[in-house]
User: Fold this.
Amino acid sequence: MKTNFLSYKKIFLPALLVLFYANGCKKEFLDRKPLGQLTFDTFFQNEEQAVQATNAVYNQYRSFDCAALALLSCSDIISDDADKGSVPNDQQPIQDVDDFIAGPSNSFFSALWRGHYRAIARANLAIQNIPNVDMDAQLRDRLVGECRFLRAHSYLLLVQWYGALPLITVPLSEDEYYAQERQPVEAIYAQIEADLLAAIAALPEKNAYASKDLGRATKGAAKGLLAKLYMVKKDFPNAERYCMEIIQSNQYSLEPNYANIFTQSNENGTESLFEIQAAAYPSPVAGPGASPYNMVQGVRGVPNLGWGFNRPSDNLVAAYENTLDPRRKATIINEGDILPDGTQVQDNPQILYARYNKKAWVPAHSGLQDNGPGNIRILRYGDILLLAAEALNENNKQADALIYLNQVRKRARDSSPVPLPGLLPNVTITDQALLRERIYKERRVELAMEQHRWFDLVRWGRAASVMQAVGKTNFVEGKNELLPIPQSEIDLTDMKIMQNPNY
Assistant:
């Protein structure tokens, strides 16, 4: 269900003026006077404008740079979970990413960089200016907390993709941006941590929001992102701490039926910690509430719902320990399947062995094809339970780890339309190394096609072995764990931003 917040009817348009430092816009564009009445000097005058500025940060995560082919290429497709998909001759740059032959000029590497630094630019502008607005103090602090959460979200993605980064926390001019150098990973981690701790202090719990504001960042979302940061850092005691605070908050619970997590009717449901909100506007209007996430992964052919990229791989199909695991059917669309709206997926002769991501499926709607209504699930409770299990196991608390691992397995088992004795039995292993393997396998099938797999493989130190095992022989250990820095950024900074090793 969409809300007033989700429709973003009034977007902070002047924030677009700061985007130049992320995408290298030509100087003559920058020299033009802004159109309309609003400028940096006349904005941030009241509460409404503070809300609009915050909404503009959220809005960036629905952009094509942040929510479409670049995201999927560098999370699902680059991993063993998915292949490029679609027709063979469409989007060779994606295939290059999947084959580990893409270089610094690949368009999708620059898209991710550009998209998330745009979000950071908008967040920086809001964080700097909202504290000076004469408005309700509690709302003011909350909005700043939301922006700090969103800035942390972008930096956590960027640092995992690229490693050392320019660390920008205030609005910059073009010249100031091009003078930036990469800062150590530890400095990026410290900023993410500081932002999330500040967000935790400022944000309400999920149940404190009115229905019209569901989807905004919450205390639980900030704790979840912080737990992910600590897992990346291998700080397992702190990861355990924040996972347990989420679990003990009583704000979240597993959706009883796994397949229902990803339906439009269950957006922002009991399992949701954070989602990117989207709402289709009726055709022919390309509304600002739309997202291309669903469209680029949609069934290509009959029914014609999208472009067909991000094909679940043969390796993923085989990864489920039981073919009757309800999660497999809830994750993968095959030719011949009957979709939830009653339509049947027809054979597309242009696509060999077609499969599609069911978690991104939305039925035909009144908006344009690329004006998709489906939310993007970023953080959910099942993910937190498995992070808790992983952290607890690393902290030598195997009995506690089993509790949360088996909660996830029980929900999957209970999602079967008919009781199946012996399906997905509880795990009883207490050996740390063996239990670690079971948790890793569970994360894969529980979170498949939700853009987690690549980051998990890299933080586990397993990217090289897994890529070699699935035939991605071009993967070079010590190189391909990170993406190359976009060549455009290196050029625009006169090589102040240096390339990652071996590129």
Observations:
- The beta strands are 82-85, 272-276, 309-312, 332-334, 355-357, 376-380.
- Residues 137-162 form the longest helix (26 residues).
